[in-house]
Amino acid sequence: MSAVANGVAAPERALSLLRMERELLVQALRGADPRVVLERLVELIEAYVPGATGSVLLVDPASRTLHTLVAPGLATSYCEAIDGVAVAETSGSCGAAAATNRTVVVEDIATDPLWAEFRDVALRHGLRACWSTPIVGGGEVIGTFALYYESVRRPTESDLELVEVAAGIAGIVLEREQALERAARESAEREDIDRRYKTLVEQLPLVIYADALDAHSSNLFTSRQIDDLLGYSPEEWRNESDLFVRLLHPDDRERVLAAHQHTHRTQEPLSLEYRLRARAGHYVWVRDEGVIVKDEVGEPLHLQGYLLDISAERAAEEQLRKQALYDPLTGLSNRAHFSELLEHAVVTQRRAGRKTALLFLDLNSFKSVNDRFGHHAGDAVLRTLAQHLNAVIRSGDTAARLGGDEFAVILQGLGDSQDAADVAQRLQRALADPIDVDGKLLRIKASIGIAIGDDPQTLLNEADAAMYRAKAHPGLDFAFFDRDLDEVALVRFRRIGELAEAVERHEFTLHYQPIVALASHEVDGYEALLRWQHRTLGELPPLEFIPLAEASGLIVPIGRWVLRQACSDIVRLGERHGREYEIAVNVSAHQLQHPEFTDHVQEALEAAGLPPHRLVLEITETVLIDAGDADARLSQLKEQGVKVALDDFGTGYGSLAYLQRLPVDIVKIDRSFTEAVDTNEPAQALLGAIIGLATALDMRLVAEGIERPAQAELIRTLGCNDGQGFHYGRPTPITGGEG
Predict the structure, then answer these.
(1) What is the pLDDT of residue 491?
(2) What is the homologous superfamily of the domain 2-195 according to CATH?
């Protein structure tokens, strides 16, 4: 993801700079007051660099001093105090920049000797850093552009580049204004002024043009930048009357010529974007802005305007569009784009009286590829599958990656269901060939479900249900949706949808079961257990919805709610009883794998005001296996004081290994080791060994499943610290069973 994100940042930054330059230079070209243009320049730079305050100072050639032209963000008192600063190498950042004709960076005004004369006034106004770049016009320094900061700061390469760009724009604006002022004072210099202005125009990142008001928009004048833009000289552009029309992109030609004719006819401004073919053969996106120039009596003379190269802007927009609509790994449509395409396809086919078919595809045992060969191998498999999909689908059909190893294909214009079956069969044949990943030949199989209909969500649910049936019967290459056979899967989809709404509807509740100190019989804490009060089915136990929540990913928002609610409830209960209780919360693999899981825990603790040492996160061995990078997140939380409990200890093959590897504080002994301990000597011996092992590792023990007094007493005598079970209380809401 980071690579993609970095890939977008550069085009966005370039696009922002390009827009800023265009706006300011076009304003200057149209004759705007230079003070207004430069004040806008300062505001744009300040917006682009948070925390910066800009200023433009002008050099007085006679006195060799600097005077403030614009500084909208600086205090008037400060500007007055530094007005008239000498152009000298020791006169602050701006004086030194003007004297040396180079950028001067002062990271800390409080310590830099350049600011000895003005240090006190700068510090009084809260200024700590200042970078200044000379503004050059006509080969001489005519002013400075500076950025101030309220804290000590070192500029980055991007910061310095931005300051230099700003100084360059200011130089063009000021040089043009100075040239015009000289022309107004001395008419004898007008020819030189025109030459300078032409040079200035040719330095702009624009093509200036004047066109006749004829059918071909024949060229009267074009600035030399046309050669850099398209590879044609101004003479070619002027002498070949149909060159403009010939170079227009075929898809744009009619639209552009119509816009020009509309401007000729109505004398309204021209503003449009289109493509022109360069001499090298590629197309260049341009923005064309023009106005009709009239004579003294109002008669139209010609069209005058500019062409701006917006290829980089268009490329950046296209890159952003692709990121929003396409999967970066496979290049296929992503889920959001797929939903739009499916909706459009269904509507289009419905109007034509036809049905739409949807193929839902899921790779079999894809997780084992990632686990055995690494995620790069899994990515290679997904890319290969995408290539197969594009190769086997028909023209006009659309393939998409919905996420993970799930793909879908929208089939339009079906003759009959056999068309969909043909696509599925071609795909299965393509997948029959092994995939070469780093010299390893991987054989991948897929399950495909097919649905045909005219409702987008129903199509998706039914194709998914058919896919699950195909997956359950390895002999099936694909399966069409069958309502009788796939009813169980449809119920599953409905339940997942209801789960998504359950948090907002406040249908979840927490029941709490006490954890008791076996020696004193006092309650040390509680375990939070989730219940779902379904609006039509009543209370549902965890086994009926937790697996669905985990499979759909909804366990993350549900688990986040459980953390916040459990922490809040235990604080209120403790305040009511005047005691401090621990609260144990079960955590799933999906939660542990979520990049913001530690933040979710911290948010819950802070919101409730619960000290970290009173929260216990219960995890099972299965969770640890599924959440591959759990160690780092658990260790981070452990450092903050949160406790970790290994639940259902003894039921998995790797429990002892996890005791050694993970930061476990508490071991919860599974009820299978405690249920017969008071009636079965071998069971008693095995439990004693488990307790001895955990005690040797200096871990707290909680025995689960205690239901009888004799059972509790025997477990206590074996050395177990705490117990939990129906003997001490069933799980109840906190208002009804607080112990």
Answers:
(1) 67
(2) GAF domain (3.30.450.40)
